């Protein structure tokens, strides 16, 4: 989908990447690693990758070193660091200044809003560490261009994950946190990445390999892009989206928004099986061997009644307008500021005791955390889809 823009802007990409020093945070995951691979093709002078997942870093190095094209970068390093920890600040001071910094670190699963402790970690990773990191960036690489990935679920959020990424967008562009940064600051919201780590299609692959029934929620529609396309989106957005804008793919809801059940059935057909539909987990498991012997595969359809699930995706939120940015497959929405009042700095002050575990700090509670988000995004108080059920209770 984005290949035409990559070809047409290849000269501009090369001009902005060749010989530059790049720091990529949280870039051992699916989206970050594909973005890094895209940028490596334009010969930067240095690429430093920070990610807490040591195994993913090792696999990324193996993949890059084994590729047909040699790794053409003078200074390539991977570092198993927490991007919000002091070691990352020391790295930035010692190895900077960087010309371009990309941040992919996130708690990104809706299932992680199952309890107050998990949501508190989501607040810390998606919001607090973002603000801290931007301060370190101003200190070490004040001229750098900075890109931090968001999510489609930040548009009119109904989940804590989407809401924390929405707050992240505010932190990213709020002058109180971006002061001292002279480069372009931008972001991107995009669709689900098919077969990325933790994605539903990847889970179908694993279940097929293990001989287990597939599972899929009913009446849920999603946009999907490929792993390679996710790298193209972030590369193009980081390089060409205007300052204080959020790039979005130019997808049509009629043409591209697909029911997950339809995709699951297509996946089974592609794998050589006829879908056998069930609405009982026990029945689907019991039928596994029998259906498989007949060229069928159980597909468990579950109700969309767990917390935070959104029936469809959207990229443009309430009060936002999409603008053209000179690319055929990407547009952008501008940051409209804090439309409902509130203060990000005040929000940080309120979150700090809970996150640090300060003496006398209240135990993290979902309703209290929801109220904190509501102080910035009041629509979340009524839009949040809460439930006694969570995705860990589903097959």
From TrEMBL:
InterPro entries: NAD(P)-bd_dom_sf, Polysac_CapD-like, Polysaccharide_Synthase-Rel. Residues 22-279 form the Polysaccharide biosynthesis protein CapD-like domain. Transmembrane segments: none annotated. It comes from the Bacteria. Belongs to the polysaccharide synthase family. This is Polysaccharide biosynthesis protein. It comes from Glycocaulis abyssi.
């Amino acid at each position: 989908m984005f290949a035409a823009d990559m070809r047409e802007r290849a000269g501009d990409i090369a001009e902005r990447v060749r010989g530059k020093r790049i720091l990529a945070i949280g870039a051992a995951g699916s989206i970050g690693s594909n973005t890094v691979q895209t940028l490596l093709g334009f010969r930067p002078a240095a690429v430093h990758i920070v990610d807490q997942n040591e195994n993913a870093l090792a696999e990324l190095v193996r993949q890059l070193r084994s590729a047909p094209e040699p790794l053409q970068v003078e200074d390539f390093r991977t570092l198993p660091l927490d991007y919000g920890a002091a070691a990352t600040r020391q790295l930035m001071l010692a190895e900077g200044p960087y010309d371009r910094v990309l941040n992919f670190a996130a708690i990104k699963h809706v299932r992680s809003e199952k309890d107050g402790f998990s949501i508190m970690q989501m607040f810390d990773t998606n919001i607090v560490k973002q603000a801290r990191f931007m301060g370190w960036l101003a200190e070490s690489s004040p001229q750098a261009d900075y890109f931090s990935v968001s999510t489609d679920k930040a548009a009119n959020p109904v989940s804590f994950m989407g809401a924390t990424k929405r707050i992240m967008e505010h932190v990213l562009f709020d002058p109180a946190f971006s002061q001292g940064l002279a480069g372009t600051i931008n972001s991107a919201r995009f669709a689900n990445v098919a077969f990325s780590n933790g994605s539903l299609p990847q889970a179908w692959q694993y279940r097929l390999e293990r001989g287990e029934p597939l599972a899929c929620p009913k009446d849920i529609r999603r946009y999907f892009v490929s792993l390679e396309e996710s790298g193209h989106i972030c590369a193009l957005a980081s390089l060409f989206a205007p300052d204080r804008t959020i790039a979005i793919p130019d997808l049509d809801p009629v043409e591209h928004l697909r029911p997950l059940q339809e995709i699951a059935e297509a996946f089974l057909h592609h794998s050589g099986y006829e879908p056998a539909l069930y609405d009982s987990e026990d029945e689907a498991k019991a039928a596994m061997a029998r259906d498989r012997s007949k060229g069928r595969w159980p597909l468990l359809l579950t109700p969309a009644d767990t917390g935070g699930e959104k029936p469809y995706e959207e990229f443009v939120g309430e009060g936002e307008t999409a603008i053209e940015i000179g690319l055929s497959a990407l547009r952008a929405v501008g940051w409209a500021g804090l439309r409902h009042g509130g203060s990000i700095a005040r929000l940080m002050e309120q979150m700090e005791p809970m996150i640090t575990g300060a003496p006398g700090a209240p135990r993290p509670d979902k309703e209290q955390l929801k109220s904190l988000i509501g102080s910035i995004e009041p629509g979340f108080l009524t839009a949040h889809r809460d439930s006694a059920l969570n995705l860990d209770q589903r097959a």
